[in-house]
Specification:
Layout (H helix, E strand, L loop, with lengths): L3 E3 L25 E3 L7 E8 L7 E10 L10 E3 L20 E10 L11 H9 L2 E11 L4
Antiparallel strand pairs: 1-2, 3-4, 3-6, 4-5, 6-7
């Protein structure tokens, strides 16, 4: 079975509910994973918006999420997103810019820690290159009308 990520909050390709956006509580949606590959010791999440006006915008960077027990991003470490802070930053496209896609990419990692305190997305991606066993992606949409 392939490694997959999903959410009870929204289906693949559907609209991300308001509580998980800047127009609501800006809370991360619950994510579920299935069939992580053997040897997975931790997980990492990169959430981004490829439709942002100035190029891909990073909303959430989490790494060192332990593989044991329930999948819980709160057990991981966060890096600064393009909002300029750590933690989750929900969908918040410019009003009237049309629908944006939001990719939640989960990496199954073969080490328990990537040791990246204070790093950037670029460093996270470089560290993941040598340690990712598999990736899974969930895509949601969100639009803010004028």
């Amino acid at each position: 079975m392939p490694f997959t990520v999903g959410s009870p909050a929204f289906a693949e390709g559907s609209e991300i509910p308001k509580p998980h956006t800047c127009d609501g509580a800006d809370a991360p949606p619950p994510l579920t994973i299935r069939d992580a590959p053997d040897g997975t010791r931790s997980f990492a999440i990169i959430m981004d918006d490829p439709d942002a006006p100035r190029g891909t915008f990073t909303h959430w960077l989490v790494y060192d999420i332990p593989a044991g027990g329930a999948f819980d991003p709160d057990r991981g470490k966060t890096l600064r997103s393009d909002f300029g802070r750590g933690g989750y930053g929900g969908p918040c496209p410019p009003p009237g810019h049309g629908p944006h896609r939001y990719h939640f990419t989960v990496h199954a990692v073969d080490v328990p820690s990537l040791a990246l305190e204070g790093a950037t997305r670029r460093y996270l991606e470089a560290a993941l290159e040598g340690h990712t066993l598999a990736t899974a992606r969930l895509t949601g949409r969100y639009e803010r009308r004028r």
